[in-house]
Specification:
The strands form three sheets. This protein has a ten-stranded mixed beta sheet, covered by helices on one side. Strands 3-5-4 form a three-stranded mixed beta sheet, covered by helices on one side. The protein has a two-stranded antiparallel sheet with strand order 1-2. Mean pLDDT is 84; it is low at 1-8, 10-30 and 32-36. Helix content is 29%, strand content 25%. A hairpin with a 3-residue loop joins strand 4 (142-150) and strand 5. The radius of gyration is 48 Å and the shape is elongated. The protein has eight helices and 15 strands. The protein has helices spanning 26-29, 44-50, 64-88, 109-116, 129-137, 209-221, 224-227, 259-276; strands at residues 12-15, 18-21, 98-102, 142-150, 154-161, 164-169, 176-180, 185-188, 197-200, 230-235, 241-245, 250-254, 280-284, 292-295, 300-301. It is of the alpha/beta class and 305 residues long.
Length: 305
C-alpha cells in the first residue's frame, strides 16, 4: 500500500520475462545517457554508483606510473648493454696480432712499428690511428702515412718515404747531410753517396734553407741517366741555378722552371757532343727548346739535337 497521496498504485505489466513495476523500477530501467542533451541529468542512483571510480584509460594505454616503470626498465637495459659493450673492447679479441707495413725502402718494418708505437698486443679497437699517423709523419724519412684498423686484430700501416736527392753542408764544421727533393734534411751522410752537392755559386758558406731547398728541387729533377754526371748544383744569390758536371762542364739552368725539359735538353746536348767528339765548356738550357753551348776555349757551337 503506497501512502503517498499523489502517487497511485503501481501498475504491473506481465509479459514473458516477468512483471515490471513501472512505479518503482521505471527509473532504474531508464539509461540517463540516452536522454537528449539538456533534457535531463544523471539519475541519482547512477551518479551515486559512479562516484569515486577512476576513469577507464583508452584502450592500449598505460597509466602514468606504468609508463614510467617501463621507461626505467628500458633505460637500465640500455645501460647494461652499453657497459657490457665497453668492457668487451678490452678483451684479448682486439689484441693486435697482424701488423702489416707497406711502402718502406729506407726504414724497416720494425722501425715503422716502433715509431708509430703499434706493437703486437696493442688494443686495435681503442687504437688512435690519427695519433699514430702524426708520430710517423714527424720522422724526416716519412713524407706521409696512413694507419688503418683491420678489426678485430689487424693493423695496416702504409708509408710513402722521402728519398735522398742531394747532399748539403749544414754547418761551419762541414757536416754533410742527405737531403730530400723538398729540402728536408734526412740524416747525416755516412760517406760518399754519389749524389750531387748543393752549394752556393759565389761563396763557400753553407746555403740557407731557401737556397738548399731550391738546389734540392733542381737535383731531384735531373734525369736518372744524367744524375751520375752531376757533381754539384750551384745556387746563385739571384736565385739562378747551374749544374757543375764531372769533367768541368757548366750547365746554366736559369730559374727553377721547366726543370724536366731542361734536364732532357742537357742530356741531348751531351749525347750530341759525345757522338761529334766536341769538347764542351758550357751548355745553356735556359731556353730548353733552343739550347746553346761553347767549346773549351770559348768558341760557340750550335748543338744539332
Amino acid at each position: 500500500m503506497n501512502d503517498d497521496p499523489g502517487v497511485g498504485p503501481p501498475v504491473e505489466v506481465e509479459d514473458e520475462i516477468g512483471t515490471l513495476d513501472l512505479g518503482t523500477e521505471l527509473d532504474d530501467a531508464i539509461d540517463p545517457h540516452t536522454l537528449p542533451e539538456g533534457k535531463g541529468e544523471t539519475h541519482p542512483t547512477l551518479r551515486a554508483t559512479t562516484e569515486g571510480v577512476p576513469p577507464v584509460p583508452p584502450s592500449g594505454t598505460l597509466p602514468a606510473r606504468g609508463r614510467l616503470k617501463t621507461w626505467v626498465i628500458v633505460v637500465l637495459a640500455c645501460l647494461v648493454l652499453a657497459v657490457a659493450a665497453y668492457a668487451s673492447t678490452y678483451t684479448p679479441l682486439f689484441a693486435a696480432r697482424d701488423i702489416r707495413v707497406e711502402g718502406t725502402d729506407h726504414l724497416s718494418a720494425d722501425r715503422v712499428r716502433a715509431i708509430a708505437k703499434i706493437q703486437p698486443g696493442v688494443n686495435v679497437f681503442r687504437l688512435d690511428t690519427a695519433k699514430a699517423t702524426r708520430r710517423l709523419e714527424r720522422n724526416a724519412w716519412v713524407a706521409d702515412a696512413e694507419v688503418t684498423k683491420k678489426l678485430p686484430s689487424g693493423v695496416l700501416i702504409v708509408v710513402r718515404e722521402r728519398t735522398a736527392a742531394a747532399v748539403v753542408v749544414t754547418d761551419a764544421a762541414g757536416t754533410l747531410a742527405l737531403m730530400a727533393r723538398d729540402g728536408t734534411i734526412l740524416a747525416v751522410a755516412g760517406g760518399p753517396v754519389g749524389l750531387p752537392l748543393v752549394r752556393l755559386a759565389e761563396a763557400a758558406t753553407p746555403p740557407s734553407e731557401t737556397q738548399r731547398t731550391l738546389g734540392a728541387t733542381v737535383a731531384g729533377s735531373i734525369p736518372p741517366s744524367l744524375a751520375s754526371a752531376v757533381e754539384a748544383v750551384e745556387v746563385a744569390s739571384d736565385g739562378s741555378v747551374r749544374l757543375a758536371l764531372r769533367g768541368g762542364v757548366l750547365a746554366s739552368y736559369g730559374d727553377a722552371t721547366a726543370l724536366q725539359a731542361k734536364g732532357q735538353a742537357l742530356r741531348a746536348v751531351l749525347l750530341w757532343a759525345e757522338r761529334s767528339q766536341v769538347r764542351l765548356a758550357t751548355v745553356d738550357v735556359r731556353t730548353p727548346g733552343a739550347p746553346t753551348a761553347s767549346r773549351i776555349g770559348g768558341a760557340p757551337v750550335a748543338p744539332k739535337i
